[in-house]
Design brief:
Largest sheet of chain B: 7 strands, mixed
Number of strands of chain B: 11
Order of helices and strands of chain B: EEEEEEEEEEE
Strand content of chain B: over 45%
Radius of gyration of chain A: 14 Å
Radius of gyration of chain B: 13 Å
Helix content of chain A: under 10%
Structural class of chain A: mainly beta
Distance between the termini of chain B: 37 Å
Largest interface: A-B, 20 and 22 residues
Structural class of chain B: mainly beta
Number of helices of chain B: 0
Shape of chain A: globular
Number of helices of chain A: 0
Number of strands of chain A: 12
Oligomer: heterodimer
Largest sheet of chain A: 6 strands, mixed
Helix content of chain B: under 10%
Distance between the termini of chain A: 41 Å
Amino acid sequence: AQSVSQHNHHVILSEAASLELGCNYSYGGTVNLFWYVQYPGQHLQLLLKYFSGDPLVKGIKGFEAEFIKSKFSFNLRKPSVQWSDTAEYFCAVNVQGGNTGKLIFGQGTTLQVKP
Amino acid sequence: GAVVSQHPSRVICKSGTSVKIECRSLDFQATTMFWYRQFPKKSLMLMATSNEGSKATYEQGVEKDKFLINHASLTLSTLTVTSAHPEDSSFYICSARDIGTRQFFGPGTRLTVL
């Protein structure tokens, strides 16, 4: 069965620090990859996604992620975080060609940015 | 962007009662909706896929008779937690997929069973 693993459960950073959140998945076939963010009290929002093409994808609010197929990874990065980036971040995988739409989520990473 | 609403946002009920949660796509038609459960400090767990006009597809380990799903129209899916017990207390989130592959999430419903 497919699974998604996020290595960092709770990350605390100061403003302007750089961010990298790890995400690995287990599936040998072709996948679509997503990062979602859940701000306090709000619903899940899509940060960015990778379907095909350039493995370095840029999302909203200065976030980017790199798909490394050989490592089954899709790490999220941001060069300089802001206090407003404090939120829960979820990596998710959708298997192409299967029951499209089914998302398998990682455990989530809580990011706390100190002003 | 597309909006998905859920009603109610939070509900408290007594053990043994049934609770219905609505998920609506407000500005698009969704042939497929998904229901997730989110435990505190845990990931979202897919419970079932709701298809308009047909029976829902449940994930392994999810009791279909306990979590009744009805997707009667292209903009509404309902999840009914029947004979709720304290262990059913959780945060339930729905998502709706538009005609493409984009999926939009609702704000969630906090269920507390006393």
